[in-house]
Design goal:
The chain is an alpha+beta fold. Helix 3 packs across helix 4 and helix 4 crosses helix 7.
Length: about 170
């Protein structure tokens, strides 16, 4: 089983219920079960996407927004989700981005000129993958484009709905 980047959009109330469940559970199980329609698997794309934006000199704001979108913030504290039955035991502890910050990230991701970023890659698919540090067969452009567009849309919808985004590796 591969370990991949996961994101979920949830309400503050949902997180409160998970925190309360963890507090009363004998094994601290938060009963984490976000709606499947509000869950996205970014696979291993965050690293190569970050590398691409840096290579394209997309700017500090673009790279910071991408990093924050997948790594989360210190607050809100979702450490109670760091439970084997919730988010597994892989990678760093789960983190979250509060609704106001979700809106900031959505705006920054929307401002990224994807066509300009992807245009900096070498024409040869294997060379493009190598430049991005990817062990990838085939052209990485469709893979990266699909994951970037999914991430951008995910954050836009979370911002429109006033949701928190939780990130973890599973």
């Amino acid at each position: 089983m591969a370990v991949t980047q996961q994101l979920a959009r949830v309400t503050t109330e949902h997180l409160d219920l998970c925190r309360q469940a963890a507090e009363v559970s004998p094994d601290a199980n938060p009963q984490w079960d976000p709606p499947r329609a509000d869950w996205i698997d970014l696979d291993w794309s965050p690293g190569p996407l970050r590398q691409l934006l840096q290579l394209a000199e997309a700017g500090y704001a673009a790279v910071a927004a991408l990093e924050r979108s997948t790594r989360g913030d210190v607050l809100p504290d979702v450490s109670y989700l760091d439970h084997e039955d919730a988010v597994g035991s892989f990678g760093p502890p789960p983190a979250a981005v509060a609704p106001a910050a979700v809106a900031e990230i959505a705006t920054a991701l929307a401002a990224i000129d994807w066509d300009a970023a992807i245009a900096v890659l070498p024409a040869d698919a294997q060379e493009a993958a190598t430049v991005l540090g990817m062990n990838f067969t085939g052209d990485p452009r469709p893979y990266l484009a699909g994951h970037f567009e999914a991430l951008r849309a995910f954050y836009q919808q979370a911002a429109e709905r006033g949701l928190t985004v939780v990130s973890w590796w599973d």
